[in-house]
Amino acid sequence: MITAANGIFRLTTVDTEYIFRLSKYGHPEHIYYGARLASSAYAEDSTAEIEALAPKRTAQTSSIVAYNREDPLYCLDMLCLEWSGIGKGDYRYSPAEIKMPDGGFVSDFIYESHNISHGPLPMETLPAARGTESECSSLILRLKDQACDVRLTMIYTVYDTANVITRRVVLENGDSRPLVIRRLLSMSLDMVNMGFNLITFDGDWAREAQRHDRPLQYGIFVNESRTGSSSNKHNPGFLLCEKDASENYGKAYGFNLVYSGNHLGFAELNSHDLVRVGLGVSPHCFEWTLNNGERFETPEAVMTFSDTGLNGLSRNFHNFVNNHIVPEAWQGKERPVLYNSWEPCFFNFTQGKLMLLARLSKKLGMELFVLDDGWFEGRNNDQAGLGDYTPNRRKFPRGLKPFARKLRGMGLDFGLWFEPEMINENSNLYRTHPEYAVRQKGRNSTLGRNQLVLDLCNPSVRDYIVTSVGKTLDETGASYVKWDMNRHISEFWSYHIRSSGEFFHRYILGLYDILRCIFEPRPQILLESCSSGGNRFDLGMMCFSPQIWASDNTDPVVRLNIQGGLSYLYPQSTMGTHVSDAPHQQTLRETPLSTRFNIACFGCLGYELDLRFLTPAEKREIREQIAFYKARRKTLQYGSFQRLDSPKTNKTVWLCRDKKEAVAGFFQTQADVSEGPDKLRIPGLDPDTLYHIKTKPQNLYIKRFGGLVKHLLPIALNPAGFILRTVNRHYALIDCVETYNCRGSALAAGIMLNNQFMGGNYNNKTRLLGDYGSNLYTVSSI
Ligand code: GLA
Known about the structure:
Layout: E1 2-5, E2 8-12, E3 16-22, E4 28-35, H1 47-53, E5 96-99, E6 109-118, E7 136-145, E8 150-159, E9 164-173, E10 179-192, E11 197-202, E12 210-215, E13 219-224, E14 234-241, E15 252-257, E16 263-269, E17 274-281, E18 288-290, E19 295-297, E20 301-306, H2 309-325, E21 338-340, H3 342-345, H4 351-364, E22 368-371, H5 401-409, E23 413-418, E24 422-423, H6 428-432, E25 452-453, H7 459-476, E26 480-483, H8 503-519, E27 526-529, H9 539-542, E28 547-549, H10 556-566, E29 575-579, H11 593-600, E30 604-607, H12 616-631, H13 633-638, E31 640-644, E32 651-657, E33 661-668, E34 679-680, E35 690-695, E36 699-700, H14 709-712, H15 722-730, E37 733-734, E38 739-743, H16 744-749, E39 751-752, E40 774-781
Helix pairs in contact: 7-8
Bound molecules: alpha-D-galactopyranose.
The site of alpha-D-galactopyranose (GLA) has 11 residues, from loops.
């Protein structure tokens, strides 16, 4: 809900409230962002209450520049503002650096008018959150510069039940002289410091979204990407929380951006203990001229607040993404269990091998077969072929159509990999159209994974991609696309833009245009975006792509951090999570099949291991895992997700629940010796309802006991010998299963689990976790 009276603007969601007012000179002054205040405040004029909440200006200090020479107490540097220009006494980082039509950098935007509308205000160039008129409303606040005919419109959209407010701006030049934007962020917000910690999610290839915390110090902290995409280096989303906030306690603010290109988020603590937070398109090599009558719109920034810790914040973000970001056709829709050919095959496959894998995957319960890289002309390694999406004649002599038909005949859907934004120099497309590649004349072109980037600023390139990808999709009847993008951008230059300062943003606009043209007419296709794993895991891509491949690293122990990190900002329904072989390809770590599944099931499940070499016991285990997942798919993909605080650093506990049932995952990294008891807390269920809690039965292979096994047998057998290897292929014990019946209140207090193996005798009431062991617990009401 939005109210505006007496120059006071109140933006309320179910649990949060955001207030600002117009200062006496017309600057929008921030008053409050936090838990919702009592609703009686609306009953009458709340000016008095606002006065109490507002930061005071009663004493004058030195070393300031007063905004008005008659008014020494009004200094922009000491105000909490909703927006601030440059050159009028505010020395904090401004959300905008504009060379104004008068040739100077000074800008001073003052309130002109406002209106409130139901629903979101449509965007012209960028994807944005969607919502109905009853779900959200927008405040449109128009400001005008004091000296030039330049307007800045600030747009706030309030999503009631998601507890989210989005912000963006539009800059419009009404002056006859041009202006040049060097930086224009989507939002700026000033608050009084609460002893904030700043949390970012950083990484690189195969270790995306690692959580990093630091106290906010004097000066400025910048979270930026300059790679051309939102990047695996610094996810655009970040959090600011009270010093002692934890997963379930304390006040926390979250920020994110609906954008897939270079971004910049910052938090600045100034000398007066005011904190400014801003977020938007990165100013890195950005320069955009606006001539008379032209406008520039920024992407939408997303803000949320919770006073129930970081889980509360994540819940808001998750609801927002599930209900307002992903394409409507996929909203709340269960995602298929898929099999992906990449890790088992890489580029080396025949149709016979693929069909064998497909048959095996179908037998185990998978629903979609994804043909990854290597299927098109010239693509037998990563040095050639990108750009030419005609099927490789040696691998598919009759094309892909009959192959896809055969898959469908056996009851599997067909999905296909593309990397449409890229080109290899060794490709027919490059030989015919070398000018399609991004490069700067007079400079050597640098390669990433042996490839160049296609110039998406060029309309002919966009048309080529839309036509060639669209044609293959229609011919094959694919129901799923994995859209990859495997390099950062370099030598950015295009002959199709006015200046190279436009390149990065125009590239992303070009990408969105292509995605719109391909997928809007084909809403039934599930798009999974990928960029060497999670190099473009952002809300912009999610507007087209309901799920994103979280990381090329499927080692479950690393995935605890990657999926755990992403979970602060994005729901499980958006994360591609696969079970692959062990020892793992990138870490060489040996982990139990059960743990690989137990972590992958908190997302959109897939398998990417070589099914041909599974033992009969492993096949039985996978079949049973998939059946388990399908029976709880809605809860695992869309349930309310929580990270539970654990007193032990070698344990991680995740919980996913809906009204009736819950699944908890208990994960151990390094085993300790003779550890104390483990407690499992399952909060949030109905306190008076009786529930049945049960460990999901899972295989315990005797090879896990190593040499110990000979102590259990009447005769000594070589643990690595033929007999035990054969037994291990066909037979497995069932790991300790515990069952309890108790009320929701007792579950919230925590149940004490059976002991872990402590090096003594083993019995089936002992939890055998060891290194990287884990268990799932199901909870259902009785
Ligand atoms: C990237 C992706 C992988 C796979 C390969 C294919 O690395 O992240 O999942 O699709 O490309 O080349």
